[in-house]
Specification:
It is a single chain. This protein is an alpha+beta fold and 359 residues long. It contains six helices and 19 strands. The protein has helices spanning 2-24, 196-202, 240-258, 288-298, 307-313, 331-342; strands at residues 29-35, 39-41, 46-54, 60-69, 73-75, 80-83, 86-95, 99-109, 113-125, 131-146, 160-163, 166-169, 172-184, 206-214, 217-222, 262-267, 278-283, 321-326, 346-351. The strands form five sheets. A six-stranded mixed β-sheet has the order 2-10-9-4-7-6. A five-stranded mixed β-sheet has the order 17-16-15-18-19, sandwiched between helices. It is elongated.
Amino acid sequence: MDILIILAVFLGLGGVQAWVLKRFGLRGFSFSRGFSATDAQAGERVEFMEVIGNRSLLFLPWVRVEARMPSSFVFHTKEDVEIRGERYHKSMFTLMPFSRVTRRHRVVPRQRGHFLLTQVSVTAGDLLGMRLDSRDVDAPAELYVYPTLPGEDGLPLPSARPQGDASVWRWILPDPFLVNGIRGYRPGDPVRDIHWPATARTGELQVKTHDYTADPRLMVLINAQKTEDQWGDLMDYEQEPIERAISLAAGLCLRALSQGGEAGFAANIPLDEEETAAYFPPAREAGRQTALLRAFSCLRIRRVCSFPTFLEQLPPLSGVDFVIISCYDSPVIRRHMEAMAQLGNSVALHILPGEASNG
């Protein structure tokens, strides 16, 4: 009889605590997470922090937090397992009343990308191990992972001019203050260069020509097609050459900025969820390096238009050093390069090593 009474009391207390935890258990619960830095290089170790709190009088025997993480994140912890190509990160906590727990994990993002984490699934249970309450909690965390930057030896060089006994690689652009002659007007010539007295004498538009000076103004164009006749998007295992192109473009832009010049890039792929081709015209201002690296991080390898269409839609620029990074050459690309050169630009085509040329 005594055993039955004890069992009844035990079951009654278990039922009461289960009811209380189910009704009030997660009312004082809080959860936040974040990375030790907003920006990181691919392969660089960062710290991932979880902060969980209990702002109530109730003791929470166990709380499980589950969240999907990018498959490119390598966690140096025993609390994650891989499910269907994604990393499903789980953390278990025991929370005393009015307590807070902070956990830190070492994470190595292996691939370039813009990662925006949103919600986590929270489950609370009682002393008997029963699952009593479950809900989704907003817990945003953001990380920009920059592309791997090539060494200086791995960067393509736009142009060269001998200086002394050595060949110095540099950008050569017209200096607006150094006028060395007059010629006929060509489409794309700026209005400010029109020589009105010579125009009046000849009856045809004439423009001033300029001497040249070294002043980096770089525009890198990324071709996200592997072949000229590609019609669909690339599978994940086919994207490695495009990732190399993005890394080269980032390296070129950073080199131009470090030399005091302007830098920009464009590609026939979008940023994040956008539907238009990425386009950043050459510029130089405070924070430009971070802005470009974040843009490279946000590029999605999902073609929005063919490369010839992309070149046709590109806003006209003059006095710019263009570097086109592509897996292949073609007559269509060459025709566009000639048209760009006629606007007073230098244009170079860099074929990725190991990729076939169609031209």
